[in-house]
Amino acid sequence: MKFKFTFIYIAAGAAFVAVSLWVLFSGGKSARAIKAKYRLGGIMLTAWSMLSAASCEGPGPFVTCYEPALPPEVMCYDVAAPADEITVKVKGKDALDVAAGDIIQITVDHPNFKQYVCTISSQSSESVPLLRESFEAYSDGAMNFEVTVQPSGYKGDARLDVYGIIDEGEGKTSEVLLFGPLVIKYI
Question: pLDDT tens, 10-33?
Fold first, then answer.
């Protein structure tokens, strides 16, 4: 099929060149030469389109000379579910200054562990544990824990951390730091 249209195109091209010379030599005054030139131009355009269509491939009932585009890539943006969003504040105060008897409120939104531990330790050269409280998770929603600051005689900056406890079986557990270090001031 391609050979047939290629041959027609070459023959029409040669005839078009001959008729173009005829129009040129007649000075454009020969109506027959101009009419023949237009007809040969139409034949060349038809042969060229048939040659193009014959050289293309395509699926189904239509033919295209273009490669089909790749199917669109599916992009999934899975947003991580919020887990263990922890906030800490001192009950009745705006600042994080604590004294013996003050209550530290710990809120855990979207708990991911069954047990949590709050630790407070001094930030001196030798870290001294001042408090360690553990809590059991009791719901899937927001949980509020309260820790009462015990008298320790310590004054200065302290570090507050909240850990999630992982039960590894056979009585073994490990701690995962979820929040901290938060610097609080013992006054």
Answer: 888 899 999 999 999 999 899 999
